[in-house]
Design a protein that fits this description.
globular; ten-stranded mixed β-sheet; 435 residues; five-stranded antiparallel β-sheet; disordered N terminus; Aminopeptidase; alpha+beta; Alpha-Beta Plaits; single chain
Length: 435
């Protein structure tokens, strides 16, 4: 399967049955309602893990789940579940071993949009309500989860919700982390009413399947004119801080050829980042998003420059090779300019392929629903990459207007939202109500 494999629809011999009364589902209205929690003056949404807006939104969702006929329940991390219990008709066949779960996260970046994460949560709640109304209780338990955190916007740690559920990370490993105001993770979770000493059950759970419906956060689907993206892989990432050391000196009296200019060296290294990434091929991306210089004075040669480096690809060997090429280039530049060079790796996430059987089921649904689709990798990280090693996992993308995300201008047309919703409902019906 290639990185971008495109398909048009021609129907199937056994088409998916039409979904009755689907037009009555008010998905956009649900998202508009949820966006009122944390609405900010910039026209966006700011809900950071365990802050007041996040707490209000998560508890309002619990009430909404109950209103929709689901059984709401928090865990110790603050993840929220809405459950549609199964009848147990599959007992003895393994069908009731673990629930089928859909959902995403409701935390945002600062001044973010109303769709990132929230779309998957809202769609999950309404999908379970719809299935119960139309078909009654499922054979296998269905759940929607509103994960407590994915973005890492408040504390320097991402995917806390999914990591706590899968047991990858425990509270003792992150409780010391501090936000920009000096509040520790332990204090924040306690003040929000969660934590190990609370009444809630432990976060660790076992899923039978996890399905995440999400906006693309990119331009590919919109530019190529497709309704659904079937995610094949979630990229791996490496993130570094690169420190270049030189010598501060007078800007007017130090000849150019005698300088040990850390900022000039860093600039040449950053140019090399772009060149190496371009040579590596279209699917590899490398980004320098931040640079600082010291002493940071206009008439002083910089003694130090620190810049960030983010490398992503769906193949680990490509990430590793690109980093080694960049490091070799950085070292050459530093030696030529008599500069010091140090680096620190902050993040290393392995690329994760999605489950092939669920991918095939999503494809069949798209063809049955006459929806144009394409196979594509995710260039952004998601909770699905945390769940996939522990249970069969898949992601469904819908288009993002102009590819804008993490921004108040983030937007997906209601028609596109509903197409993704149709696919999710059909998939949950197949897994929850099928034989």
């Amino acid at each position: 399967m290639t990185d971008f494999e495109v398909h048009t629809t021609s129907g199937t011999e056994d088409p998916i049955q039409p979904l009755p009364q689907l037009e009555q589902v008010e998905l956009q209205a649900f998202l508009d309602w949820l966006s009122t929690y944390g609405a900010d003056a910039q026209g966006g949404v700011t809900r950071l893990l365990y802050d007041q807006a996040w707490c209000e939104a998560q508890h309002a969702l619990a009430a909404k789940m109950k209103e929709k006929g689901l059984a709401p329940e928090f865990d110790q991390s603050g993840n929220l579940y809405g459950t549609l219990p199964g009848t147990g008709a599959g007992k003895g066949t393994g069908m009731e071993e673990a629930p089928i779960v859909t959902g995403s996260h409701i935390d945002t970046v600062v001044h973010g949009g109303k769709y990132d994460g929230a779309y998957g949560v809202a769609a999950g709640v309404l999908a379970l309500e719809y299935l119960q109304t139309q078909f009654g209780a499922p054979k296998r338990t269905l759940q929607v989860v509103s994960l407590c955190e994915e973005e890492g916007s408040r504390f320097p740690f991402a995917y806390w919700g999914s990591r706590s559920i899968t047991g990858v990370t425990g509270l003792e490993e992150v409780q010391h982390l501090k936000d920009q105001e000096g509040i520790t993770f332990a204090e924040a979770i306690r003040d929000a009413g969660f934590g190990l000493d609370r009444k809630y059950k432990p976060a660790a759970k076992k899923y039978g399947t996890f399905i995440e419906l999400h906006i693309e956060q990119g331009q590919v689907l919109e530019r190529l004119g497709h309704s659904i993206g079937i995610v094949t892989d979630i990229v791996g990432q490496k993130r570094f801080s690169i420190t270049v050391s030189g010598e501060a000196n007078h800007a007017g009296t130090t000849p150019m050829s005698w300088r040990k200019d850390a900022l000039a060296g860093a600039a040449e290294m950053i140019t090399a980042v772009r060149s190496i990434a371009l040579e590596a091929g279209e699917r590899l991306v490398a980004t320098v998003g931040r640079i600082t210089a010291a002493p940071g004075v206009g008439n002083v040669v910089a003694s130090q420059a620190v810049f960030s480096l983010d490398i992503r690809h769906i193949r680990q060997e490509s990430i590793d090779r690109c980093w080694q090429d960049m490091l070799q280039s950085f070292s050459r530049i530093a030696a030529e300019q008599q500069l010091g060079l140090n680096w620190e790796e902050h993040l290393s996430v392995t690329p994760i392929p999605m489950n092939e059987q669920i991918i095939a089921d999503i494809r069949d649904i798209c063809e049955g629903e006459q929806l144009s689709y394409m196979y594509m990798p995710s260039g952004a990280g998601h909770d699905s990459q945390i769940f996939q090693p522990t249970c069969p996992t898949a992601m469904i993308f819908v288009p993002s207007q102009d590819g804008i995300s993490h921004n108040p201008l983030e937007y997906t047309a209601e028609e596109d939202l509903m197409k993704g919703f149709r696919v999710l409902v059909q998939l949950l019906y197949k897994y929850g109500y099928g034989s």
